[in-house]
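ugh finaly. both done.
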Amino acid sequence: MRVYFTLFLIIITSINFFAQELNYKIEENISYYPTNESGLTAYQRAQCRLDIYWPTRKKDVPVIIWFHGGGLTGGSKEIPQALKDKGYCIVGVGYRLSPQVKAATSIDDATAAIAWVFENIARYNGNSKSIFVSGHSAGGYLALMSVMDKSRLKSYEIDANKVAGLIPFSGHTITHFTIRAERGIPGEQPIIDEFAPLYYVRKDAPPTLLITGDRELEMLGRYEENAYFYRMMKVAGQEKIKHYEMQGYGHNMTSPAFPLLIDFIEKFKE
């Protein structure tokens, strides 16, 4: 009888423990530009906001900044369901979109959002030394651009190499097709300039996991440009980089890719 009572106490204690661990809160529509800044447009005030989903009873947890896809012309901030309740602080970021602004403005917004997270995430039990930047498609491109071009975060007095990891899902590594379209350049013509992550290949970049769909099912050239980025980073001397091809999946390969993101975070978190 005493054995059963002991087991009962263990089970009840475990249930209470996990109940506490899985207590999460969400705060929505936080502006990541100073709201008292007079130069902000109405569109910027409305669009440049983020949502935070975090565990309330656990401190210094890894942080995932997630940028939505949509070709820099559509989509809205989101916190992927697959990343919830895993012990992380999740930040879903909104940003301005073309044609309301030039598409490159999205990169400015992404950088501002990352800087805000570095400065404020401790209030939400996040660890500023364990910030991972990710996103799908256009969001993957923004993740890469805002960190690979070190000058962007440097303008906020943040060293881009303090980012714990980069995990773009099917992101452009050449200049984004919407930026090219604004210049009258067709999608079949690749460009590598200051708006291409490939332009900033360097040895000292944060650990990186490139995830793409099957090369035969992906969007035009998306697998190949990521493979080239991977190769050039290796040539530059970056050893902490991998490229994973989700065989059998096309561009919308987020669901089976999320476990790879989680494994990556567990490997490189502080």
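ok and the 2nd:
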Amino acid sequence: MEVLLKVLTVGGTGYIALLAVMFLLQGALIYFPDTGRQILRTPKDVGLDYEVVWLTTEDDVRIEAWFVPAPAPRGVALLAHGNAGNIGYRVDYARLFHRLGFSLLLLEYRGYGRSEGKPSEEGTYADARAAWRHLVMERGFPAERIVLVGESLGGAVVARLAVDQRPAALVLASSFVSVPELAAELYPWLPARRLARYRYDTLEALKRVSCPVLIAHSREDDIVPFHHGERLFAAVKGTKAFLEMDGGHNEGFLFTREVWREELGRFLEQHVPEGTASIGPR
């Protein structure tokens, strides 16, 4: 009996210690900026000119973005990437949107790439707002010509932005319902929902979004299960479309690139007015 009590005591102490570590070090489980500090590719590697833009957020953090212009653009896409790597890993998006007649602003989060600061949930939301202000106030793009695009974690970021603004459309790729929901599936032996200090509640944001929404997800996603995409799609009350992709979480676009381009192009043609965007002084 004494041995059993000791085993239970040691096990209980270890479990409590694990809970404390999970609670305190959640940021290290959500953000992976060190996987892509070095910029390995730029739009020039796919034959496109671009401009490095430095934005200052409302809390005075200096972040980087790349603006890739398209000739006589129909509009502009604002891309918020996933939780690992940097904008250099997303250069193929520039080629994709260029073919569709859209300029592109690739947003780098604070603490990622060459941006200053340290990533946080409220910080990434502020980063997205700074990018929106740049497109509207400095580039002169009207809201009805701006498409918000988010992959994985970035989906939660731009969904939140779409609640406060009125973009032409919102595109979410491989995005999750919320951090607590995903954590509960990844760590079923932990009270993950109660431990979660980060929300990134994409589902709640989508309930309040009024613009057309395209959800893209793969049944083979090995990180964010397919039913997350289904739940997000069901939450959208207005105009919406769903694209089922192939491949794992980080491979979906590689496996369905042509289908992705065709479906995305069709969606944008339906929801972004024809004609060239009226752009301001820059």
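summary for the 2nd one i guess: Residues 23 and 195 are 6 Å apart (CA to CA).
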